[in-house]
Amino acid sequence: MPKTSTDDRDWISEAIRKVDADANRSADTHLHPFPLAVDGIDLYLKDESVHPTGSLKHRLARSLFLYALCNGWVGRDTTIIEASSGSTAVSEAYFARLIGLPFVAVMPASTSLEKLALIEFHGGWCHLVEDPGTVYDEARRLASEYGGHYMDQFTYAERATDWRGNNNIAESIYEQMRAERHPVPAWIVVGAGTGGTSATIGRFVRYRRHDTRVGVADPEGSAFLDGWLADRADVTTTTPSRIEGIGRMRVEPSFVGGVIDDMVRVPDAASIATMRWVSRVLNRPVGGSTGTNVWASLGVIEKMRQAGETGSVVTLLCDGGERYSRTYYDDSWLVEQDIDIAPYSAALDDLEKTGVLPDVD
């Protein structure tokens, strides 16, 4: 942007006020205890689906808008462009409309129809590409064409959020856990889409000197786990993740491997079976990434049980399942994708009865 005029400065100030006010209008997200028959170990779900735009990405979008506004990258005539697998775009469309700016989401053509409808409901426009690996370059091209600003969540997620506190998701978890029987979690388990959430939580844990370990659950098709194991940022994959919102074909710039204590690969069948199981237990639909998070958390809990450890494990309920009625909740879609959830569903049934999670061959 050119040098900021007084009128532009006033507009930016008012835009920041509006974005900040969004956080003040709603209480913090809920922390739900999840019923498990495992002695001495408690599982909690941090319910990010209750944000105004229905997902964890509402926090990220708010931070990205504040970051861009305070850096002088966005003005009264700026078109906002983002590359997204859906949920971030929903949330950014909401904030763009809040401050009166046009918004374009560049997304894979496979993105759920429900998410496309939500983006349009919030005033955004969806630009679909067939190859998910091209979303970054296409977003840059559109930003240049429109004279707009490419938000670039995959670069700025880890730096736009104040990881030291200021009611970020990590500080919220610890505040809400204070009265529980194991107030300092043994583990916090999250997925990685940009890497921003694991970076925020991992940095906060170290800054506050907690004994909590941070685990990351990575779906099939994602480059994060292999990049973390090899300690390399140039690892890529050839097939995109089928679990929307997490997993990327490259190691994103916001992924900070040094704050992660362990990572696991979660099969798509396990994610979807667990998503459906959690939905039945809670009597409400949850999304696929929640299934990924919970399956990985159950693996952590089983290892704790075998080692005779007690404590608490916290993971994220990232979004509601209403967005996935044509995919993860559709048995015909599972057949088309050659996904067999039966072995994982059986293992979860055993866990419910015995408190022990069996191995799945």
What does this structure look like?
The protein is of the alpha/beta class. It folds into 2 domains: 21-53 and 164-354, Rossmann fold; 57-157, Rossmann fold, CATH 3.40.50. It has 13 helices and 10 strands. The chain has helices at 6-24, 57-70, 87-98, 113-121, 135-146, 153-160, 169-176, 196-207, 224-230, 268-282, 288-306, 331-336, 342-354; strands at 30-34, 41-47, 80-83, 103-108, 125-129, 149-150, 187-191, 213-219, 262-266, 311-317. The protein has a 6-stranded mixed β-sheet with strand order 1-2-10-7-8-9, sandwiched between helices. Strands 5-4-3-6 form a 4-stranded parallel β-sheet, with helices on both faces. Helix 1 packs antiparallel against helix 2 and helix 2 (57-70) packs across helix 6. The radius of gyration is 20 Å and the shape is globular. The chain starts with 5 loop residues before the first helix and ends in a 7-residue tail after the last helix. The model has no long low-confidence stretch (mean pLDDT 95).
